[in-house]
Write a structure and sequence with these properties.
It contains 13 helices and 5 strands. It has 277 residues and is an alpha/beta fold. The chain folds into 2 domains: 8-19 and 138-274, Trna Endonuclease, Chain: A, domain 1, CATH 3.40.1350; 25-136, no CATH class. Strands 1-2-3-4-5 form a 5-stranded mixed beta sheet, sandwiched between helices. Strand 2 and strand 3 form a beta hairpin. It is elongated.
């Protein structure tokens, strides 16, 4: 495979946003339950009990949405009342009265009445809280996994099942984690890291250490390919520049984005032929 020195500008220009659906199965269930919940001028402890009895985890999440509390805040409030008794489903089933009293102390009934009678539709605010809170985390997970899955489809298209996924490979000097090792983690000739980011954060810096670990562990003639995307790299150019420096110095063989998928496949086929895999 011919060596081509890449530059930061070309990679930046090829980036595009990673769009995913923020709803998972839990979110869809909760939204359906919110829309099915009867609108009342006043709610009672029986309404809260029904939420928890039908599905405890979903019921607690719904209570959190009404209250606008994070998971950590809810844990803190309940433990302040229940102490060491616990705040999970076992505690609820064992001491439901005390558990419900603790929830009532948060003002849940008033919050339910206020939100349920809000116009134009009372569930809109709760759905937005779910989207911006839990949905934000789900979106982040799916962006990263979406890039991995996309890269894996191309790898599988070229190599079939002759590769190991999300593994620790053995190099001549050390071991390192990678997303794909071809043809195997015990003797890889091609190592691939695939990462996508929809929000800036320490993980975008952490990948530099991950790539360095792979470079230090792999054989000099083992190809290291890095597949990534997401407009947030434009806000972390210094981190991306470091990865480009790895590529320019030969540590990373090539960097790819979604826009370079055809090149990614072509290079894999060329490497397959060169390494006789």
């Amino acid at each position: 495979m011919e060596f081509i020195a890449q530059n930061l500008t070309d990679i930046i220009d090829s980036l595009k946003p990673l769009t995913v659906d923020w709803k998972d199965d839990t979110a869809r269930r909760v939204i359906d339950r919110l829309k099915a919940l009867p609108v009342k001028q006043a709610y009672t402890v029986d309404d809260v009990k029904t939420l928890l009895d039908e599905d405890f985890d979903d019921g607690i999440l719904i209570c959190r949405l009404f209250l606008g509390l994070s998971k950590d805040q809810t844990v803190s409030v309940l433990r302040g009342v229940l102490g060491d008794a616990g705040i999970g489903v076992k505690s609820y089933r064992a001491k439901s009265t005390a558990f419900l009293d603790a929830l009532l102390g948060t003002g849940i009934l008033e919050a339910m009445a206020e939100e349920a009678n809000r116009k134009p539709h009372w569930s809109d605010v709760l759905v937005e809280r779910l989207r911006s809170g839990r949905g934000s985390a789900i979106s982040g997970q799916r962006r990263g996994r979406g890039v991995e899955d996309f890269a894996e489809e191309i790898v599988q298209k070229v190599f079939g099942d002759q590769f190991d996924r999300r593994c620790t490979f053995q190099g001549p000097r050390d071991k390192a984690k990678c997303d794909f090792a071809i043809p195997s983690k015990s003797a890889p000739r091609i190592v691939i890291e695939a990462k996508g980011y929809g929000a800036t954060g320490s993980k975008m810096t952490d990948i530099i250490g991950d790539i360095e670990s792979i470079i230090n562990a792999k054989r000099p003639d083992t190809a290291l390919l890095f597949f990534t995307d997401g407009l947030t790299w434009k806000q972390r150019k210094s981190d991306l520049r470091k990865i480009v420096e790895f590529q320019n110095s030969g540590g990373v063989t090539r960097i790819y984005t979604y826009a370079m998928a055809a090149q990614f496949e072509a290079d894999l086929r060329q490497l397959k032929a060169e390494y006789k895999l």
